[in-house]
Amino acid sequence: MQREAMEYDVVMIGGGPAGLAAAIRIKQLAANAGREVTVCVLEKGSEVGAHILSGAVMDPRALDELLPDWKKNGAPLDTAVIDDRFLILTADRAHRIPNALLPRLMSNHGMYIASLGNVCRWLARQAEALGVEIYPGFAATEILYDAQGAVRGVATGDMGVARDGAHKPEYQPGMELHAKYSLFAEGVRGSLSQELMARYNLRDGIDPQKYGIGIKELWQVAPEQHRPGLVLHSQGWPLDNRTGGGSFVYHFGENLVSVGFVVHLNYENPHLSPYDEFQRFKTHPAIRETFAGGKRLSYGARAINEGGLQSVPRLTFPGGALIGCAAGFVNLPRIKGSHNAMKTGMLGAEAVFEAIVAGRANDAPVSYGDAYRKSWVYEDLYKVRNVKPGMSWGLWPGMAHAGLHMWLNDLGLGGLAPWTLRHKAPDHESLRPAAEMPVIAYPKYDGVLTFDKLSSVFVSNTNHEEDQPVHLRLSNPAIPVDVNLRMYDGPEQRYCPAGVYEFVSDEASTGAMRLQINAQNCVHCKTCDIKDPRQNIHWVPPEGGGGPNYPGM
């Protein structure tokens, strides 16, 4: 069966903040110019917002520019931040840093606590009202190139393929979407974005991207524990001083609390489990009372770009561009990226529209890169460029350096720190042999405040068609046992927050250990693709519509 093809002016790969903002901006520009520009958004989740996971405290700056009437038009940003707290935790104490000592860059006043998934659902409605075609449940799995090597669109994955590659009775071939320009908004560590960076050498001379894993739960808490508008962050316990990360607790909506934990993926100890560090964090005396009498509603995890300015690749290539977290515009100390994702989507859209009006197609929309360097996104990242590299020195030196760096920028004295620190190594190189590192004894789950991985995956609403090709691919099937298990005690069974990887005895043959991949549990966080010490695991999209379905996350 041959694939059918559809023609568009612009195709967005990904229905998150960047892709939707880009689609809306192109349609706005087209309407103002009296032109017809066809725009399509592909979203691999079962619906827009299904795979969106963020804290989220949202800076509305980009939204103010894109849709100034967002409040009047019902955008789901109802809880303004009214109380900002930052804690340093020890095992049994919480020490609050006075707000007066915190750099102004860290203030969340003027921001909104929200479900980013619901914001994206609302943005999708605005886009469709402008004539954007949105296709959820279709995963872009292949980049299409023309004879000159330029991107000419993408193809969606085939549906109805069995695990052994055979076509099931319901088999349907993927669809080709041809476009003058394709904007890739896949989010963190997108498989197609990685292909584009390699093919067009977009990372030449650029520092390695740095990552964290963010793990989140949504709770409905007892009314007496709810503090609408409270934003709380912490560093310290349960992590040691050599391991970067921290927590967030956000109160919003109708007795809702988002609680989460981020672990930087340059950690050294292969015995560490980010999932269990999060569960342990909730038991801290300063935290656990919030959830007394409450109920956990949902769970999820995703990787986060942390490299900042030094790790942003070249953004354009023949036929398209990278926008949003596909390129990596997260401001790590502010723990915010959606405003920059939306703005870069808008800048990419403006460059592409300019090219279409000029009669161009399938070349590099280079004005986007220039616009980014002149934008407030670049300024936002420049001010904090040295914070993440300094964290490699440890908690206390890193915090002191970050505070000094941000205060100098707050006071307009950034010129006193003109240097830019570098990211020297990718995160997968940081693990040390298991024999050199202490084993971590994690407490048992109580099923009330702390939970096992499988019950967490259940409330993430994760669902995959089980009889399909495994979307977690091993370049060399021997490496998990011969290298990872032997040297690092099988870290994939701990860094995965969904129980996808486990080492089991192959009793049917020799009794030797083998890696079992429970792909149906995957919540699409892509941590395995990032942290595997030999880069042997490659995450690719499963059949469209699969994966988590995050309500209110």
Overall mean pLDDT stands at: 96
**Rg over CA atoms:** 23 Å
CATH class of the largest domain: Alpha Beta
Number of helices: 14
Total domains: 4
CATH superfamily of the largest domain: FAD/NAD(P)-binding domain
Which outline best applies? globular
Computed structural class = alpha+beta
Report low-confidence residues grouped into runs of 5 or more: none
What does this molecule look like?
The chain has helices at 17-33, 61-66, 116-129, 191-199, 274-281, 338-357, 367-373, 376-382, 387-390, 395-410, 453-459, 479-488, 492-495, 527-531, and strands at residues 5-13, 39-43, 57-58, 79-80, 83-89, 94-96, 112-113, 133-136, 140-145, 151-156, 159-161, 167-172, 176-184, 211-220, 230-236, 245-252, 256-264, 295-305, 316-317, 320-322, 472-474, 501-505, 513-517, 537-539. The chain is α+β, with helices and mostly antiparallel strands and 553 residues long. It has 4 domains: 5-68 and 117-206 and 313-382, FAD/NAD(P)-binding domain (3-Layer(bba) Sandwich); 79-114 and 209-306, D-Amino Acid Oxidase, Chain A, domain 2; 387-419, no CATH class; 428-539, Alpha-Beta Plaits (2-Layer Sandwich), CATH 3.30.70.20. Helix 1 (17-33) runs parallel beside helix 3. The longest helix has 20 residues, at 338-357. The model has no long low-confidence stretch (mean pLDDT 96).
